[in-house]
Write a structure and sequence with these properties.
The chain is of the alpha+beta class and 165 residues long. 16% of the residues lie in helices and 27% in strands. An eight-stranded antiparallel β-sheet has the order 3-4-5-6-11-10-9-8, with helices on one face. The longest helix is centred in the N-terminal third of the chain and has 16 residues.
């Protein structure tokens, strides 16, 4: 009788029984992000929402800071998608790396084209403009070429808005 066959069979049985105990973990999947500039929300989540609600709706976050400190603001962050919820400061930020929809499509828009959509800014600077919105404040940042490269939505007024570094 060939001794290799029973040994090989026993070895395969051992491998299959031990590998069947491994845990399978599903990768969290988020719906497509959709920023509504005029409503001041991301998929109907607003800047005043807490960490728990954002985590439940968007489980694919890349990092989370639950308690603010001198080195970090509290929030839930989707760095791979260019989207940041600063929950302790009540604002949402989308960077030029933002992956999702934006209505109206402001990312990359020319600074000179904003009046027809947003009117005059409440506060204006060389690198940014703040607009008074029904929900609070919209802050738009511009590249040296005058194109929008960052959007911040807050339920606070321009005078009380505190941003993270």
């Amino acid at each position: 009788m060939n001794m290799k066959l029973p040994f090989f069979t026993a070895l395969m049985l051992f491998v299959f029984t031990h590998s069947s105990h491994a845990q399978l973990k599903a990768t969290p999947v988020c719906p497509t992000f959709s920023i509504d500039i005029l409503d001041g929300s991301v998929n109907k989540l607003y800047p005043k929402m807490g960490l728990g609600e954002i985590k439940t709706r968007f489980p694919c976050y890349t990092s989370i800071v639950e308690v603010p400190s001198d080195s970090a603001c509290a929030g839930i962050f989707f760095k791979d998608k260019g989207l940041y919820f600063y929950t302790d400061r009540n604002y949402i930020e989308a960077t030029e790396n933002y992956k999702g929809n934006m209505i109206p499509a402001l990312m990359g828009a020319d600074r000179k084209s904003l009046f027809s959509t947003l009117g005059n800014p409440r506060i204006k600077d060389a690198g940014w403009e703040a607009y008074q919105m029904q929900y609070g404040t919209l802050v738009l940042y511009f590249s040296p070429a005058g194109k929008i490269n960052k959007v911040q939505i807050s339920n606070k007024s321009a005078e009380t808005l505190k941003l993270c570094n």
